[in-house]
Write a structure and sequence with these properties.
about 300 residues, alpha/beta, Rossmann fold, seven-stranded parallel beta sheet, 12 helices
């Protein structure tokens, strides 16, 4: 059932706080929402890019260098945003990164970095903004992934973190409901961003992608994710997704996961080869940036912040 314009949550004149806002989904969401009249606070660890983005947007745009693994830095960014704009009505916890590899062989620091940014970073962002969101009966959107629904090989830490983001969102949604605030979770498939392009460039990922249907593996335009975010904010939706078929995947997750596992079992030779390619001890894995994960390979300097999906 569609809502009338009078029932939509209008961002015009309101303030939106976005992490991972230097590139990808975060930067594009800031641009879209600013064009609709919102004040925007761009948060991340690439100060030059954040400054460029804010300058391009002009008035009503601020930028803050803050790591989502640093709760004090997030609190300072929130405080400065409130001081500048009077409050925070919408927050998008978007910062994230990824590494490719098996749980048995991926360096421990890469696994922990993935969990630290993609799960605990979302929790820290939520904790930093939730008082503002509840006071202003606003909306908080946590960016998860299709990986919260389907859990595949060579992405163990990432899928673990995104599954946690879904659970975190569900719990916080219930806890925030009495205040009139709303909490949403975004489930995105492969979206055309730096992170997706860099992940696809990994030989192991390329091999496993051959086992995946084309409609799943072909990246969707970035605009589809931004359209979904815009609709989600307007409706303060519990769940948003892009591309459209992700909705069916959420509904059928109990069926899809066993099918995915059986498909890989039938193609075990490809799986074994992909795991070998991703093994750091094999000698074929390029040195990886602990700050950025695989996305560092797709970026031009300077590059210091977790990149959006």
């Amino acid at each position: 059932m569609s809502r009338s314009p009078a029932n939509l949550f209008d961002v015009n004149g309101r303030t939106v706080f976005i992490t991972g806002a230097a590139r990808g989904i975060g930067a594009a969401a800031a641009e879209r929402l600013h064009a609709k009249g919102a004040n925007v606070a761009l948060v991340g660890l690439e100060p030059e890019l954040l400054e460029q983005n804010a300058a391009r947007l002009g008035e009503r745009a601020l930028h803050f260098e803050a790591d989502v693994t640093d709760f004090d830095a997030l609190q300072r960014a929130v405080a400065h945003t409130v001081e500048s704009f009077g409050g925070i009505d919408v927050a998008i916890a978007n910062a994230g990164l990824a590494f490719t590899g098996t749980l048995a062989k991926t360096p421990v620091e890469e696994v922990e970095r993935t969990l630290e940014v993609n799960l605990l970073g979302v929790w820290r962002t939520d904790r930093a903004v939730i008082e503002q969101i509840t006071e202003r009966r606003g909306y908080l959107l946590n960016i998860a992934s299709l990986s919260a629904v389907t859990h595949t090989a060579l992405m163990g830490p990432y899928t673990t973190a995104k599954s946690g983001v879904e659970a975190l969102s569900d719990a916080l949604r219930m806890e925030s409901a009495p205040s009139g605030a709303r909490v949403g979770c975004a489930y995105f498939g492969f979206i055309d961003t730096d992170l997706t392009r860099a992940a696809y460039a990994q030989p192991s990922s390329g091999l496993l992608n051959q086992q995946t249907p084309a409609f799943v593996r072909n990246p969707a335009p970035l605009s589809r994710a931004i359209d979904a975010i815009e609709r989600g904010i307007e409706r303060r939706s519990a769940r948003v997704w892009a591309p459209r078929w992700i909705g069916a995947a959420i509904t059928l997750r109990g069926v899809i996961q066993p099918l995915l596992e059986r498909r890989l079992e039938r193609n075990s030779a490809a799986l074994v080869e992909a795991m070998h390619m991703a093994d750091p001890t094999s000698g074929g894995v390029a040195e990886r940036d602990l700050q950025l994960g695989v996305a560092a390979q797709a970026l031009t300097p300077p590059a210091r912040t977790p990149i959006s999906r």
